[in-house]
Amino acid sequence: MRVLVLSADNFEDSELLVPYYRFLEEGFVVEIASMKKGKITGKHGYEVGVDKTLEEVDADRYDLLLLPGGKAPEVVRKQPAALEIARRFFAGNKPVAAICHGPQTLITAGLLKGRRATCYWSVAAEMKEAGALYEDSEVVVDGNLVTSRQPSDIPAFMREAMKLVRK
Amino acid sequence: MRVLVLSADNFEDSELLVPYYRFLEEGFVVEIASMKKGKITGKHGYEVGVDKTLEEVDADRYDLLLLPGGKAPEVVRKQPAALEIARRFFAGNKPVAAICHGPQTLITAGLLKGRRATCYWSVAAEMKEAGALYEDSEVVVDGNLVTSRQPSDIPAFMREAMKLVRK
User: What ranges do the domains of chain A cover?
Assistant: First the structure.
């Protein structure tokens, strides 16, 4: 299994690191893509290496897309390459797991219309405006899409993400 | 399954949070014990609630003991109640998972003599002096004991801890 993470500086550290280590525990390959190579730094100071630029990513080579939260999605959602990657996962009906502010990238990509989803409370208004069927739940699964609200939802988020990727 | 975490302020955030969320994903009960109730804060600023004081812990009610690293073990190892809890787990041959500086509590409790184990590089000297058979590996499993060196070892650490607790 191959997991792709889209993020940038000021990611929410636990929302990137917990799934990252969890997927590695499972023996998955996990690659992090961002605007440029080098390192990205989380809000709490954790650093992770960037494996690929967004332009270098071949979305077809991955089985799951992870979109962690924090301030990073505000920047990621402005990158056309990131939106194309997200659309490619949806077109292939492949698992996409987004938490907190992570769904913002899916909103901008126009992928949530008519889809059941959740997100951080402050993102709920724009999620609804984008046509999503917003729910205030620890995790919402709608087909290929798993979404959660915040770090405390990580156990439910990972439980459902693991189920999807094992299908 | 019931997991007990012994820690204090200045814990290494990822070494506490990743296993914490992982065990909750699995449906386990996880309780955090420290010197006093309230909250403890990690080196990177994450806060977790304290469920029990060390004196309130009945070690027999738990199936696994987790000892995360950071600066916390320097304080935890000075608490007689923490040492008694660790000894109780060893006496019952129940799983104990310690990472980074976490094994310091086991060193002070006199539990590592003749045991294969690892730890953060700066703890290696005192681990050897305590009679442990130190190995510089991402994870060392010796009977009920799982040890690792640092955050990047978390995938191997959790893989082996999950195997032990499922036995």
Answer: 2-166
Q: How far is B99 from chain A (nearest CA, A)?
A: 15
| B159/A21 Cβ within 8 A | no
ipTM of the complex: 0.96
Assign domain B2-166 to its CATH superfamily.
Class I glutamine amidotransferase (GATase) domain (3.40.50.880)
Contact between residue A57 and residue A35 where contact means Cβ atoms under 8 Å apart: no
| Claim: this prediction has a pTM higher than 0.80 | yes
Tens digits of per-residue pLDDT, A111-147?
Answer: 999 999 999 999 999 999 999 999 999 999 999 999 9
The C-alpha atoms of residue B99 and residue B70 are separated, in whole angstroms, by 9
- Between CA A155 and CA A138 the distance in angstroms is 9
Token pair of B74 as six digits? 């320097």
Q: Which of B94, B101, B115, B149 is catalytic?
A: B101
SS (H, E, C) chain B: CEEEEECCCCECHHHHHHHHHHHHHCCCEEEEEECCCEEEECCCCCEEEECEEHHHCCHHHCCEEEECCECHHHHHCCCHHHHHHHHHHHHCCCCEEEECCCCHHHHHCCCCCCCEECCCHHHHHHHHHCCCEECCCCCEEECCEEEECCHHHHHHHHHHHHHHHHC
Residue written as token pair 């992090």: A32
